[in-house]
Specification:
By secondary structure, this protein is of the alpha+beta class. It has helices spanning about 5-15, 25-30, 75-85, 105-110, 135-140, 145-155, 165-180, 185-195, 240-255, 270-280, 285-295, 315-330, and strands at about 1-5, 35-45, 45-55, 60-65, 90-95, 115, 125-130, 160, 200-210, 210-220, 225-235, 260-265, 300, 305-310. The chain folds into two domains: about 1-120 and about 305-330, Gcn5-related N-acetyltransferase (GNAT) (Aminopeptidase, 3-Layer(aba) Sandwich); about 125-300, Gcn5-related N-acetyltransferase (GNAT) (Aminopeptidase), CATH 3.40.630.
Length: about 325
């Protein structure tokens, strides 16, 4: 078993150019500012970045986002468990970088782990194929989305690549207040941008009209994939449809970088029939963005989910009770 430094982990990742961005050391460094400690473990050509969340009494909870890497995890899992016990983890969450539709599901590759009801990253998403020409992309979209992209261009919306994190944070605050969801402080978005942008893995796109900021999105890329993680808009000039043109330019940026898939990152975890039946009536949670995202002509996909192994059952039950209590308190 090998424990890597961040630089050694980056070298190891060269074997897996299409590994998920959440398995990069940059993501581990980012999360280290928010109560997580990353470690990097490898065994027999398989490896994983493990994030440890600090809990009271010196305990932790372990999380492997979109990993492990490699095809054979049988030798790696005992080492993961040993490292988690060493750091007093009460449970291990593994969220494989796989779709529910994959032929080999984690049930067969994660012995001793069970599918959990815990939700960490959005379980269901829409991915857009960047194969073909831009005209092919447009042809796969809903008619209204094509119209809105062209409308934004005609109404003099301009898209620029920007480093104006202050404006982005202000737009996020406006969006959060309007749509009634929590947003991070400006330092959060600045930190993630400064960690990923220098290597070309992150870009901030800003939509303006007559030099007035209207909307912005922050997107990421690695290997053949790109992800739309954060987005915001103000309450002015919304009839100019800036958010549609932002996504279009982000898709073009991703394709020019060699990506073949653009992940819109998060829609309600419902089957397509229910989504299509209800999206016009609902706006709670992720329902509010489904109407927008569905128009880009992507494919609805569901991740394989989160698999858990409980190491300290009594303490884990206490932890879950505390988490559920906190959620209910926030909901109230």
């Amino acid at each position: 078993m090998t424990l890597f430094t961040p630089d050694q982990w980056n070298e190891f990742l060269k074997q897996y150019p299409n590994a998920h961005i959440l398995q990069t050391s940059s993501w581990g460094s980012f999360k280290s500012h928010y109560g997580w400690q990353p470690i990097y473990v490898s065994e027999a050509a398989a490896g994983a970045q493990i994030l440890f969340r600090r809990l009271p009494l010196g305990l932790t909870i372990a999380y492997i986002p979109k990993g492990p890497l490699g095809e054979n995890w049988s030798n790696l899992l005992p080492e993961i468990i040993a490292q988690c016990r060493k750091r007093h983890a009460i449970a291990i969450y593994i969220e494989p970088d796989q779709w529910q539709e994959d032929k080999v599901l984690p049930d067969q590759t994660l012995p001793g782990f069970i599918l959990s009801e815990v939700s960490i990253q959005p379980r269901r998403t829409i991915t857009i194929s960047l194969d073909g020409t831009e005209e092919d992309w447009l042809a796969r979209m809903k008619q209204k989305t094509r119209y809105n992209i062209r409308l934004a261009e005609k109404k003099d919306v301009h898209i620029v690549q920007s480093d104006d994190l202050e404006t982005f944070s202000q737009l996020m605050q406006t969006t959060g207040a309007r749509d009634e969801f929590g947003v991070h402080p400006g330092s959060y978005y600045r930190r993630v941008y400064e960690l990923f942008h220098p290597s070309g893995a992150c870009e901030l796109f800003l939509a303006t009209y007559q030099d007035q900021p209207l909307a912005a999105i922050m997107v990421f890329k690695k290997g053949k994939r790109a992800w739309y993680f954060y987005g915001a808009s103000n309450n002015q000039e919304r009839n100019r449809m800036p958010t549609y043109l932002l996504q279009w330019e982000a898709m073009r940026w991703a394709a020019q970088a060699g990506c073949s898939e653009y992940d819109l990152w998060g829609v309600p975890d419902q089957d397509e029939g229910k989504l299509e039946d209800q999206f016009m009536q609902r706006s709670d949670g992720l329902w509010g963005v489904y109407r927008f995202k569905r128009g880009f002509g992507g494919e609805l996909k569901r991740s394989a989910g989160v698999y858990a192994k409980v190491l300290r059952p009594v303490l884990y039950r206490v932890y879950l009770t505390a988490v559920n209590f906190r959620k209910k308190g926030l909901a109230g």
